[in-house]
Design goal:
The chain is α/β, with parallel strands linked by helices. Helix 1 (25-32) crosses helix 5 (169-192). It has a 7-stranded mixed sheet, sandwiched between helices. The protein has helices at 25-32, 95-99, 118-126, 146-153, 169-192, and strands at 11-19, 38-43, 62-75, 78-84, 102-109, 131-136, 161-164. 33% of the residues are buried. It is globular. Helix 4 links the parallel strand 6 and strand 7 (161-164). It has 5 helices and 7 strands; from the N terminus they run E-H-E-E-E-H-E-H-E-H-E-H.
């Protein structure tokens, strides 16, 4: 995906949606997917008591145990395939497979539980996979400035930090477009950088 395809040629790209437990990854994939999303939601049982911290998401009764999958056509020649990761640490062993072939990732954050996204950021930085941070505005209000979130996460100034509402298709679409633009910019910069 280093350049836009010629007219009539469709390009597809894989994007990973990651973040902590209960941050809204399944909701994000479902809000924007033009197909009925594939989810691997399972009912939370007593086995998760003391393992999964549900204090900030008290109404949560299900959890992703493998992945979410959706698809969106950004325009007539670009299709994005979305793969949502499970948030609990016991399922992180699947992340390596889920990111294989991805052009980039969205790290979805809940500012009430900012520390929950550190592992995802570290994962993508270690693999040098471009990512952006999307601040999920759970109650429809943005409580923190993106620069303050960037500072709290100690991420590079070139990594985009954007607010979003994971329930809203247009908001989520904007996040995905921002990621694709960021990936293209990074690839152009690498192509012209001296060896």
């Amino acid at each position: 995906m280093a350049h836009r395809p010629m007219a009539g040629r469709v390009t597809s790209a894989k994007i990973v949606i990651a973040g902590g437990f209960g941050v809204g990854k399944t909701t994000l994939v479902g809000s924007v997917s033009e197909i009925t999303p594939l989810t691997t939601e399972a009912i939370m049982t007593s086995a998760g008591v003391g393992v999964d911290d549900t204090r900030q998401v008290p109404g949560k009764t299900t959890t992703t145990v493998a992945m979410d999958f959706g698809r969106i056509s950004i325009d007539r020649d670009l299709i994005l395939y979305l793969f949502g990761t499970p948030g609990q640490t016991r399922f992180w062993f699947m992340w390596d497979e889920l990111v294989r072939g991805a052009i980039g990732a969205v790290v979805l954050v809940d500012t009430r539980r900012l520390a929950d996204c550190f592992a995802a950021i570290d994962f993508f930085e270690h693999r040098r996979l471009p990512y952006l941070v999307a601040i999920n505005c759970f109650d429809g209000m943005q409580h923190h400035d993106p620069q303050d979130v960037r500072d709290a996460l100690a991420i590079s100034s070139d990594v985009p930090v954007v607010p979003c509402d994971a329930r809203n298709r247009e908001s989520t679409k904007h996040v995905l477009i921002s990621l694709v633009e960021y990936v293209l910019t990074m690839r152009r910069q690498r192509a012209v950088a001296p060896a």
